[in-house]
Amino acid sequence: MRVVLAQPRGFCAGVVRAIDIVERALEKYGEPVYVRHEIVHNRHVVETLKHKGARFVEELDEIPDGAVTVFSAHGVPQKVVQEAGKRGLPVLDATCPLVSKVHSQGKRYVANGRMLILIGHAGHPEVEGTMGQVGAPVALVQSEKDVEALTIPRDTPVAYVTQTTLSIDDTRNVIAALERRFTDIVGPSITDICYATQNRQTAVRELCRIADVILVVGAKNSSNSNRLREIGVEEGVPSYLIADSSELDPAWLLGKNTVGLTAGASAPEALVEDVIAALKKIEPHTEVSQLDGKKEHIEFRLPAELRD
Question: Which among 27, 83, 126, 144 is annotated as catalytic?
Answer without folding.
Answer: 126
